[in-house]
Amino acid sequence: MTKITRRQALTTAAAAPLAAAMPGISMASAEMKGASMPPKFFRFQLGSFEVTTLLGGTQTRDNAQSIFGTNVTEDEFAEVSRANFIPADKAQFFFTPMLVNTGSELVLFDTGLSPEPLAAALEAAGYGTDMVDKVVITHMHGDHIGGLMSGDDATFANAGHVSGAAENNYWASAENEGYEAKIRPLAERFSFIDPGASVASGITAVEAYGHTPGHMGYMWKATASR
Fold first, then answer.
1. pLDDT tens track for 168-224
2. 127: left (phi over 0), alpha (psi -120 to 50) or beta
3. Is pTM beyond 0.85 here?
4. Half-sphere exposure of 196 (CA within 13 A, CB side)
5. For the segment 118-147, what is each residue's pLDDT rounded down to a tens digit?
6. Residue 101's closest CA among 119, 125, 118?
7. Which residue(s) pair with 42 in the sheet?
8. CATH superfamily of 40-57+95-226
9. How many CA within 13 A on the CB side of residue 164?
C-alpha cells in the first residue's frame, strides 16, 4: 500500500485551487438553459427606409402534409421531413408583420394572428401601437387581420387603415367570421384602393391576385441612404 507523506498531502491541498482555475478543467456541471426563443424583431436598412420585421405570434398545426407536400406520398413526405430534421406530422407557423419607417411615417404591413404578441414585438423594437401612422393589409386571411382589434377597440388607434377594394368586396359578401370581427367594425377607418395607388411616400399597391381574390402586393422605391 502506498503511503502519503505529510509533505505530499500539503502539496496536493495547495494545488487544488489552482486546478479549479485552470481552463479545460470542469469542477461542476453547467445548468441547462433550454432552447432559445426566436427574436421578437429584426431591423435593417433599405435605402432611406428602415424596415423592422416583427414576430407577431407563432402557432403549431397538426397534419402538416395537408398544408405542404400534397403532391407526394406519405412515405416520401416523411422521408424528406426526416432528412431535413423537421417533424412530418406538425407544421410551425411564424407570423411576421413588417413595419416600415419612411422617415415621415410609420407604416405597418399586416397584423398577425392577434394583437398581444404584435404589441409586445413593437414594444421590444422601441415603438408603441399609438405610434403607427398607417396599417396596410395585403389580404384578409385571419393571420393578417387578427391584430387589428383588441376587444372592441382598434389596436392602432391613431392609424389610417388601407386595403385593396377587390379584396374587401369579396370578403364583405362572404359571411366570413374574421372579416365581421376585425374589418367591418373598422370600416370607417379604411381606405379601399386599386392597384397603382400610393399608400405612403414611395410605396405603391401592386395587383397580386390569386392567394385571395383581391390579394395586393406593395412595392416601394427607396432612395439611397446617406
1. 999 999 999 999 999 999 999 999 999 999 999 899 999 999 999 999 999 987 554
2. beta
3. no
4. 1
5. 999 999 999 999 999 999 999 999 999 999
6. 125
7. 53
8. Ribonuclease Z/Hydroxyacylglutathione hydrolase-like (3.60.15.10)
9. 24
Rounded-to-integer distance, Cα 97 and Cα 171, Å: 21
Distance CA(136)–CA(193), nearest Å, equals 11
The residue ranges of every structural domain in the chain are: 40-57+95-226, 59-94
Q: Which three cell numbers stand for residue 186?
A: 373598422
Q: 155 φ, ψ to 5°?
A: -65, -40
Asked whether the beta carbons of 65 and 80 are under 8 A apart, the reply is no
151: its cell numbers: 376587444
* The pLDDT of residue 16 is above 80: no
Helix H or strand E segment including 16: helix 6-21
